[in-house]
Amino acid sequence: MENQIALQLLQDLSVPGRRATAFPPEELAEAGTSSQIPDEHRADHTLSLPELSEGDIVRHYVSLSQRNMSVDTHFYPLGSCTMKYNPKRHERWAGMNGFINAHPYAEAGDIQGLLAVLYEMQEMLGEIAGLPSVSLHPAAGAQGEFAAILTASAYFASKGEDRKTVVFPASAHGTNPASAAMAGYKCVQLKPSSTGLVNLDDLKQHLSEEVAVFMITNPNTIGLFEKDIQKISEMLHDVGGLVYIDGANMNAILGKTRPGDFGGDMMHYNVHKTFTGPHGAGGPGSGPIAVRDFLGDYLPGPIVTRETDAHGKTVYKMSKPPKSVGQLRSFIGNIGILLRGYFYIRTLGGVGLREVSEHAVLNANYLLSQLKDVLDVPNGDRCMHEFVASAASLKKKGVTAMDIAKRLLDYGFHAPTVYFPLVIPEAMMMEPTETESKLTLDRFADTIKNILAEDPETLRAAPHTTPVTRPDEVKAAREPVLSYCPCPTPFEVEAPTGVKESVPSYI
Amino acid sequence: MSYLFATPEEQQQMLAAIGVESLDELFEQLPEDVRLNRELDLPPALSEIELDRMLRKISSDFATHGDRVCFQGGGAYDHFIPATVDEICSRGEFYTAYTPYQPEASQGTLQAFFEFQSLITALTGMDVANASLYEGASALAEAIIMAIRSTNRGGRVVISGSVHPEYIETVRTYLMRNNCEIVIADVVDGVTDWQQAGSLINDQTAAVVVQHPNFFGCFEDVKAVVDQAHAAGALAIEVFDPVSLGVVKRPGDYGIDIAVAEGQSLGIPLQFGGPYLGILACREKFVRKMPGRLIGQTVDRDGRRAFVLNFQTREQHIRRDKATSNICTNQGLMALRASVYISQLGPKGFVELGDQCHQKAAALADRLTEAGVGQLAYAQPFFKEFVFQFNRPAAEVIAAAQKAGFNLGPVLNRFEFQNPIPENSLLIAVTEKRTFDEIDRLVAALSR
C-alpha cells in the first residue's frame, strides 16, 4: 500500500523548474533596490537543492511518517526513554502568540508573563527535586550533566581544590562518563555487583579527596532503587565529594521521594521524558538542573529572578548567578520544551505527579509479573518503573535479545531497549510508562510468549512485515554513504582498530 | 486531571497479579527515612479548560511583544515559515517517535535525517553534515573540540572578535577545564583585522574561527582566514548564516574545514531562544571526529535501500568516556522543520530570500541615514543586519520604536566585546517578511 514514488529521495523527485515557496522580486524592483554584496563574496554557484512542488513535498513527508513507529501509533516500551503519551493540548498552548513569537532579546519588561511562567517552573522543579536552586539553561540531559559537573568544579575551585576524578557505577548511561570526560575529569567505573546495586566495596576503594563527583541514576538503569543511597552520599561527603543524580528515571519517584532528600547534591531532569516533552524523533529535549543552595551561585545561566520594585510590584528579570560558570548555549534555554513541561505539571499538580509514578511502577511490575515465568529477570520480581529481562538462556536455541526485539515489530510493538545496561547479558529493558492500559500490557506479554514459542529461524529472519528487513550495518560503515549521491561512489574511511562497527542498538 | 488508564478494578487485578495489597507496597524498596511523607507543594491541578483560560490570559498579557513588527536579530530572526513546515512536523508519527534505534521501525525518521544531511551539504558546499546538534553556540564549541582532536593540538584557538559574543562565552565554558588558550582577534571598523590576527596563529593553534556575515552583519575576509589557518596547520571554522547561501559564497567555496550554524532561520519559530537547530558540516576526512548522530545509506537483507545510524562507535552510548561528544538527544524535529523549509524554497527560493533580506536591510540603513537619525556604525557592506549608531540613547530609540509597533535590538552594550563599540548602537535585522511600508513607518517613527 506504500506510495513508492513519493518515498524516493527528495533529489530523485526533483524536476528543474518546479518550486513551492517564492519571494517575488517585483517588490524589490518597485523600490529600486539593488544588491550591494561585494564581488568577492557574491555567490557564483547555483545551489544543487531539489526542485519540488508543494504537493510532492507533502506527499513525500507524509509517506515517510507512515514508515515510523511512534507513541501516537504504537506501544513503545523503550527502557530508560519514558515514552509516555504526549498531550495534544500542550502543542496548542506552546503555539500561542505570546510564547511562540517572543524574540530572545525581548526586553524583560515586555515579557513579564513569560518570565513569571519560567520562574514558577524553576520553583516547581526545585520542589520536585528537593534541590532549591534551578537553572533551565541546558539544552538536553547530557548538557545538564556537563553543566552540573562544571558547576561542581567551579565550587571546588572556589575552595582552592582541584579534584581529578568522577566515579560512576557500571550500569551508568554512556552520557555520564562522556560528560565527565568532556569536563576534563578522569573517569572511574565501578565493578558491577551481584545485586545490581552500587558495589559499595569497590566504591570505598576508589574514594579519596581526588574524587569530585559520584554520578548515579536512581532508580538505576536496572529499575532498582539504590537503597544504600544515603550511605553512598555520606561516603562521598566524608571525602568532600558531591553526589550527582542522573534524573532520567524520575518518572518512578515523583512525589514519593526526592533526590535532595536521599542525599543528592545536583541533578538534571529530562523534560522530554518525565514531563512529556515530546521526543521529536530524537529531540529537542531540555535538561534543567537543580542543585543545593551552596552550589546555586555557580549555575549556568541566565536564570530568572524575582524582585519587588520601589512601588511594591513584582518584577521578573534574567541574570546570571554571581559566580556562574557561564553559558553553554545561546539564549536562556529550550523554552518550547520547558513550556510543555510546565503545562504538564500544572495539569497534574502534586497529587497527579505522585499518581504518575505510582501507575508507572504499577504497570512495570504488572508487566514483570506477566513475563517472569517466560523470561529471566536477573534482579528479582519487583522493580520500580522499568525492569531488565535477559534473553541469555535462549542463546542455546540460537535466539538473541535482538531477534525478539525485531520480531516484536512484526506484531506491532516497538522493541524494548536491548543490550543496555551492559551489566546484564542479552538485556531487554522494558519501561511501559503509566499511560498504557492493562489491555495493551496483556497483549504485549501474550505476544512475547507467542514469540518465544516460535521457530527460531522465524525470529532470526525477523522483522518480516516492516518497510525494510534488517539493514546491513557493516556495509553502512565500510562503504559510507552519508548524503545523497546519484551514482554511489562511497569515500574511503579507515575503520578504527579494535572496534566492531556492527553494533547493537542501545538507548 | 491525569492521563492514566487503570480503573480501580483493573488496579486491583494488577496488584493481585503482582502479589501485593496496595500501591504503597510497590514502593517498599524506598528506605523509610527518604520517603516524602507529604504531597509535593505545587500549584493545584487544572483541567484543560481552566489552564487554557489561564494561559490565554498570560499569553495575551505580553502578546504585544509578539504582535509588534520584528526588526530584531543577533542570532535569532523573524523569517517567514511556510504552512507545510508546521503541518508536516505536527504529525504524531514524527514528533512522538524517539531516536531511530530500531531502523526497521524508523525508516521515516532515518530517511528524513539522511535527506537533511544531504540538503545541508548541498547548501554549504561541504562533504558531510551530521543529523543536528543543539543550537549554534554549542555547535561551535563542538566544532572546536573536533578541531582539537583532529589536529592533536590543544594549545590555542583563535576566534574573531566579531563572532557572536554568546558563542564566544559558550566556547569558554565548554573549554573551562581544558588548558586551551582562547585568543580573540581584534575587530577594526566592524570586521576582523586578519593582518594582525595572523600573528596570533601559532604552531599549537588547533582552529581559527570566523563568523561570516559576522555578528555585526558585515562580510569577513574568509579567504584570508583559510589561508592563514592552513599555513599554520590549523583548521578553519566558519559560523555561517544559512539564509545567506543563495547569494553569498558557501563555506565549501572558501575551503572551510568545519562549518557550523544556527539553523533557526530555516523554518523554526523564535519561541524565546529555543529549541533551535545546531548545524555542523565538515570535510570528509574529519568524519570520524564528528560529534552527534550520522545517518548512513545501506541495503537490507533483501537488497532494498535502507537507512541506519552510522559510525555509532564515535558516540557516548558505545564509547562512553572516549566518545567524540556527550551529546545523545539532538534536535530531530527541528532538523525535520529545516528539511521541509529547504525543500519548499529550492535553489531559486534561496536566491530570492537572500536578495530580499539583503536589499531590504540596505534600504532601511539608507533611509535611516537619509532621515538624519544617525549613521552606520561601520563603513562596511553587510548582509541582512547592521549596527546603526543613533544620535540619541539606544533606550530612547527602542521606546520610540515600540510605541509605533516595532521591536528593535539587541542594544550592543548588553554584551562584552574586546574592542569598544560606538555609543548608542543597535543591531538591526531585516528579513524577507518586512515590507517597504514597514521600513518607512519605522524610519518615520524614529525621525520624530
Structure description:
The complex is a heterodimer of chains A (507) and B (448). Chain A is an alpha/beta fold and 507 residues long. Helices cover 34% and strands 10% of the residues of chain A. Among the domains of chain A are: 1-32 and 48-67, no CATH class; 91-346, Aspartate Aminotransferase, domain 2, CATH 3.40.640.10. Chain A is built from 16 helices and twelve strands. In chain A, strands 1-7-6-5-4-2-3 form a seven-stranded mixed β-sheet, sandwiched between helices. Chain A has a three-stranded antiparallel β-sheet with strand order 10-12-11, with helices on one face. A two-stranded antiparallel sheet of chain A has the order 8-9. The radius of gyration of chain A is 26 Å and the shape is globular. Chain A starts with 9 loop residues before the first helix and ends in a 29-residue tail after the last helix. The model of chain A is unreliable at 488-507 (pLDDT under 50). With 448 residues, chain B is of the alpha/beta class. Chain B folds into two domains: 65-81 and 346-447, Aspartate Aminotransferase, domain 1 (Alpha-Beta Complex); 83-340, Aspartate Aminotransferase, domain 2. Helix content of chain B is 38%, strand content 16%. In chain B, the strands form five sheets. In chain B, strands 2-10-9-8-7-3-4 form a seven-stranded mixed β-sheet, with helices on both faces. The N and C termini of chain B lie far apart (53 Å). The relative contact order of chain B is 0.14. At the A-B interface, helix 2, helix 3, helix 4, helix 5 and helix 6 of A face helix 1, helix 2, helix 3, helix 4 and helix 5 of B.
